[in-house]
Amino acid sequence: xxxxxxxxxxxxxxxxxxxxxxxxxxxxxxxxxxxxxxxxxxxxxxxxxxxxxxxxxxxxxxxxxxxxxxxxxxxxxxxxxxxxxxxxxxxxxxxxxxxxxxxxxxxxxxxxxxxxxxxxxxxxxxxxxxxxxxxxxxxxxxxxxxxxxxxxxxxxxxxxxxxxxxxxxxxxxxxxxxxxxxxxxxxxxxxxxxxxxxxxxxxxxxxxxxxxxxxxxxxxxxxxxxxxxxxxxxxxxxxxxxxxxxxxxxxxxxxxxxxxxxxxxxxxxxxxxxxxxxxxxxxxxxxxxxxxxxxxxxxxxxxxxxxxxxxxxxxxxxxxxxxxxxxxxxxxxxxxxxxxxxxxxxxxxxxxxxxxxxxxxxxxxxxxxxxxxxxxxxxxxxxxxxxxxxxxxxxxxxxxxxxxxxxxxxxxxxxxxxxxxxxxxxxxxxxxxxxxxxxxxxxxxxxxxxxxxxxxxxxxxxxxxxxxxxxxxxxxxxxxxxxxxxxxxxxxxxxxxx
Amino acid sequence: xxxxxxxxxxxxxxxxxxxxxxxxxxxxxxxxxxxxxxxxxxxxxxxxxxxxxxxxxxxxxxxxxxxxxxxxxxxxxxxxxxxxxxxxxxxxxxxxxxxxx
Lengths: 498, 101
Description:
The complex is a heterodimer.
Chain A: H1 10-19, H2 24-42, E1 45-48, H3 50-65, E2 77-81, H4 108-115, E3 119-124, H5 158-165, E4 171-176, H6 182-188, E5 191-194, E6 214-219, H7 222-233, E7 263-266, H8 268-271, H9 278-293, E8 297-300, H10 309-325, H11 343-354, H12 357-369, H13 375-397, E9 402-406, H14 421-426, H15 432-437, E10 440-448, E11 455-462, H16 467-480
Parallel strand pairs in A: 2-3, 2-4, 7-8, 7-9
Antiparallel strand pairs in A: 1-3, 4-6, 5-6, 5-10, 9-11, 10-11
Helix pairs in contact in A: 2-3, 4-7, 10-12, 10-13
Chain B: H1 5-14, H2 21-38, H3 74-78, E1 84-85, E2 88-89
Antiparallel strand pairs in B: 1-2
């Protein structure tokens, strides 16, 4: 026995497979073993792709035996949020609408992870069509926070965060339209990065808000996340996504750079905001002190229009969601109501019975906001607020290299504790302006709450396309805190031996 | 002015989401709560501010050489449809039988 997957970083796994310390097949078996013994409690997975995993691992082992050069993620166990297509798996978006949908092609982000040698372990739970911040709106089952199974893992990429936190996989991909990578990463105590808009291809990812959506990695270490960023951007611009950019670079290269003399912004008004839990505020203040101890200059900055970001976001996201989800009419794919006399009746009943409550709410709101006479008052105004928020960030980033703030105003809450949709929307305040402006952001675990004992993440935001620089700050913060590589205590050593 | 139940029924018809009576009541309450959350945006001073429709702003059409490449096969394209006939997706009548719809 070589040890446990719990203790190994992605790079250590890839290096071990490349050197022959263990085989990719042994790693895949260890991950399947960890899933078998842990996922009953977390319920992070919607499908475990055992056959795909073992076949990919066997290909990696055969390539090594043939003397071929292995990829930087050789044998690393990875799983994907279930809004990402992977041939050989269903892509359900955690919705009855797509329950039997078999992926017809593979998303670029998924393919690039596989091209780097990763082993695909399956598809992860999420809020239905990514509408939510708890993962409770999955049509199939909730996912539990590995630190306390009575609590939510956050969302919408809650399955991705929980699977990594419980040590079922080493890396996962999530998607972030208004905080859906950073918030669950914060609530579960792992690292979650939303790259700048355009860094990662959206081709093959089921669209929610096309001007806001971005795919990114979740891992237990900043280094693992940087390694995944290398894989996601290798190959440059994806010609299958018109918004994709060539962002190929070595995201590991500057991880250990000192941050001495570099400027980190804090926004005092945000730390005084109503609804921010005292234990989260003190954790963020401690994080600022630690960055200062590492030599960063802490400066006050302001994002004066951030207060309007919730209204702007819920206008834009709902309108884009309504447009994107109009394609689910039950004809080419998706649930189809039987026995209807007309196409209109079939569409209306297929959508009524295929979508869950929150998916219906978001689409209804979007349909209203895009209607004649209403569009100008809300949608156009929201796009103008987007201009103001973007300008706020540009002013702030002229002074500082990164901005520090919470990713969530509270630690993870108990299942069902917040049932009012509008109250849940307000909890997105720290993450959504970043999507509106297209900047990069990352949540790094900085400790456990002094009241709750639950993990708290500090969010760092950086300028558009300064993703590598953002990772330098994230690594500096990780070095200063004691949460690197942590698997939730109840799961350590439960299966997963190599 | 708040949306009425009839307003919301009209939006549901447009959005092609059939709602039950109970759902219509719940949706009306939700819509009015959500719109109250969004309302601050109407009062915002936006004089002279240009809209930003896209975060990166400088989108251009992506084109490739006009060469034939393989796409989904017919079988693959039809594989996820609930109802097909031969080489086609099968749908009910587009116009109501005998009606004016």
